[in-house]
Design brief:
56% helix
Amino acid sequence: MFIPMVGVVPCSGEEIPEGTVARIAARIVLEKLRPNQTMTICLPLYLAGGKDEQEFVKRQPTIVIDGCDKRCAEKSIRKNGGNLAAVIQVPEIMNGCKLKAKSRAKLDEEGEKLAQIVAEKIAEEVDRVLEEMKQKSEQEE
């Protein structure tokens, strides 16, 4: 059954600016770019055994946004059998666009631009995943 909804799991890392970028980018997607096609997954609640979060991540495709090379969000979703559709690494995007967030507490103008670029990448992945889901659903009918 085709349910046009994709989970978004942002990094929960508070110690680096890239974690803040991941969370703000996820909010941009959820609130502005793809509000009717995405749902945020609280990583700490998911790891603590939140049944709704765990069931959603197993059933629906999920996009992870990690803030550093520790890849905590990705590892957590993989370890717990989540339906991982894409992994977005903030440092890779940061290196590609030559922007850098300087503060973890509040993003400056450059950090905001970076968050917007990351959000656009997430939205592209949402579109790709939904199209794949739609095609698969049509083939099964």
